[in-house]
Model the fold of this input.
Amino acid sequence: MNNNLFRLIALLLLLALAVPMARAADDEKTDGDQETEYYDALTQGANFLYSGSAERALARFKQAIKLKPDDARGYFWTGLTYSELQNYGLAATNAEKATIIDDKFPDAWLLWGQCFVHTSRWQEAREKLERAFTLAPQNYLIPFNLGLCYYYSLDGENKTTALRYFKKTLELNQKYAPALLYEGCCYLKADLRFMAVISFKNVAKLEPNNADAFFWLGIAHRRENHLADAEKAFLQAIRLNPKHYEAHLQLAHMYQIDLLDKKNAEKQYQAFLESAPEDHEWRSAVFEYLSGVK
Done:
């Protein structure tokens, strides 16, 4: 869902390009030079995308489409690049074109579904992702995105269904930290706090610099009334990301309500105000509190 994830996808697909493209050169009745040029455009574009040069990648993929407008891969890679540029409208358009040309192209269905995930169009996202999952049941990114659909949508037992998909993701890739993080959040929603602590600790083991893992670990510890552990976790989240305003807010509230530490509460509330967006729902209350104590 983030830039690193898309670059990982690009790398994996780059590694997979050689065999199908080589087969295409033998099997398709196309001019050899044009086939080589097409393959070069895709490969160079994938390299640019992986290295973070999305604009240069886009130029190469568009060239590939001109060379072979009836090949789904050019549209897929173009869509993936637009997604990297956060232009989810054009990303979805190109993903759709790829599925029209090849309706058994699971990565294109996944990309199309991810575009709808990014724009919170959950029902449409589920439809595309379920199609992708049917075609590629071993791709752990598909159940993860389905989990996001159910976690953030408003359908009845969505958190239970979300948890099932996050667990499926972990069956396929037990070290995929984002799924572990959401697994923990689902446990918190179900008030299974001990299980949540385990999930968040596992994320922290895999990614010791993941500030969100420590933030949510702090939330779980606080709900368990393990205040010393909660304080330690929130402080670690802040060390890793000094502008983690939610960690500042939670820590400040804990100092104010649970630990009766007025000085540290003020300090953390001030840090919250310095980092939180202007429309944060707690800004006015925090400002009023700080005005009152002074």
Remarks:
- Confidence is low (pLDDT under 50) at residues 10-30.
- The two ends are 43 Å apart (CA to CA).
- Residues 6 and 64 are 20 Å apart (CA to CA).
